[in-house]
Amino acid sequence: MPYEIGTIDPDTAEYTKYAELGGRTFQEGPGTALSPDLTRLAARKTEADGTELAGWYDLDGTFVPGGPEIVNGKFAQAQHFESIRFDYQGRLNYAVKTEGTIDYRYFVVDPDTQQSTQINSSGGYGVQFLPDGTYAQPESCYHEVYSFTPTNKALFVDYGEATDSQIYLADFASLPSIGSCGPTGQALLPETNPTQVAQPVMTRDQQSVAFLLGRPNNLELYTVDLAGGEPKEVPGDWSDFTLMEWRG
Questions:
Q1: Which are the contacts of 202, defined by CB distance < 8 A and separation ≥ 6?
Q2: Distance (Å, rounded) from C-alpha 94 to C-alpha 86?
Q3: No. of H helices and E strands in the chain?
Q4: Residue 30: beta bridge partners?
Q5: What is the pTM of this model?
Q6: In terms of Cα–Cα distance, which of 66, 48, 49 is closest to 57?
Q7: What's residue 190's pLDDT?
Q8: Tens of pLDDT along 206-241?
Q9: Does residue 23 or residue 151 have the better pLDDT?
Q10: Taking CA 156 as the corner, what is the angle to CA 175 and CA 108, rounded to the nearest 5 degrees?
């Protein structure tokens, strides 16, 4: 089944298709695999001779290389591209991992020169790109962050005890470097929910958050105001949907 990009009107629950991505799959999760203008899908391509390429697919399905090639020799320690994605400025970035190690080297590609610049120390694991164009290399809980506000606040879900879950909003710089991110910051739901919530995204004016509620194959869409109040359901079957961002 091909992926579609579309918009949902939270007031009317109307879905509008924007584009189709054919049989392409997401390497890194749709929120970062897609360029901000929704025209390119970051991807890794392996040629018949084993050469690896990092780049993107246009909406017409054409693969465009966006960085150097990886050619692994028979007697060298193999390397592979991982975490191929776009940052908030539309720049392609990727990691090169040495097989059998935890050595991840992260690079950003200059869109004008196609030159790659390493941005972390070798051996580091995990880089998070922030909306203001900067990046951070936190030690642990960065992987729990689902999305960011324009002011570098992080949205994430803390699952607490058993299946209880709560959405939190916190300054990214304040997140703990070990263990779980939460509970840290402002809780956005009236109470901890016994049903799992997921994929929180915030409006650009930072007044409301949308999220999915439920379990795979049975997902409901809700919005909630940061000022408080009960979450409001957006009627429909959203089981095949992934929230990327709220552009309103």
A1: 147, 149, 155, 169, 208, 209, 210, 246
A2: 9
A3: 1, 19
A4: none
A5: 0.78
A6: 66
A7: 83
A8: 899 999 998 777 899 999 998 878 899 999 989 888
A9: 151
A10: 75
Neighbouring-strand partners of residue 42: 56
DSSP secondary structure letter of residue 50: S
Q: What are φ and ψ of residue 209, in 5° steps?
A: -130, 140
Give the CA distances from residue 49 to residues 52, 70, 97, in Å, rounded to whole numbers and listed in that order.
9, 11, 19
Contact between residue 25 and residue 44 where contact means Cβ atoms under 8 Å apart:
no
The one-letter code for the residue type at 98 is: T
Is residue 72 within 8 A of residue 83, CB to CB? The reply is no
Q: 238, 242, 205, 209: which is closest to 223 by C-alpha?
A: 209
Residue 184 has a CB neighbour count (10 Å cut-off) of: 18
Q: Report the C-alpha gap between 229 and 167 in whole angstroms.
A: 14
- Longest pairwise C-alpha distance within the chain: 62
Per DSSP, 193 falls in state B
